[in-house]
Amino acid sequence: MTGWRRSEGVNPQSRMPLPEGVSRGAQFSVVVNDEKVSAFEGESVATVLMANGYPIMRTTQKGEPRGVFCGMGVCFDCLVIVDEVPNSRACMTWAAPDMRIIQQQGLTRMRVQEDDSFDA
Length: 120
Hints:
- This protein has 120 residues and is mostly beta strands.
- It has a domain at 27-108: Ubiquitin-like (UB roll) (Roll), CATH 3.10.20.440.
- Helices cover 6% and strands 29% of the residues.
- The strands form 2 sheets. Strands 1, 2, 3, 4, 5, 6 and 7 form a 7-stranded mixed beta sheet that branches. The protein has a two-stranded antiparallel sheet with strand order 8-9.
- 26% of the residues are buried.
């Protein structure tokens, strides 16, 4: 989504500290809006986006920003495009290595271009 950036003043690696005896899963990379960011095994796409400074997951058809609201897949405010699949619920989708995530704009259909790249 052209022009969308990380939130200002947010540490791009702002995950909560872990209690003693608890460890994170394996670290890997995903791509958010053509930017490589870190993720950990066991994190949802919503967690990866918020931890890396992307609180806006999509916009409505009128351009109003939306993000995680319920966090359990009921409200559909966190819809994103994951690996070319639009309307994926970020809160219900597990992050995976090399996943491509794009903040979704309204209900625009995906357009696959001749060079196999895509945009929303």
